[in-house]
Amino acid sequence: MARVIAIANQKGGVGKTTTAINLAASLAAAEVRVLLVDCDPQSNSTSGLGFARDPDRISTYHLLVGEVDPAQAVLPTELEGLSVVPAHKHLIGANIELVNADNREFRLRDAIGKLRAGFDYIVLDCPPALDLLTLNALVAADSVLIPMQAEYFALEGISELLDTVERIRQSFNPRIELEGVVLTMWDERTNLAQQVAGNLREFFGEKLFSTTIPRNVRLAEAPSYGKPALLYDIRSRGAESYIKLAKELLGRSIDQEHLSALSTQHSATGAA
Question: pLDDT averaged over the chain?
Answer without folding.
Answer: 91
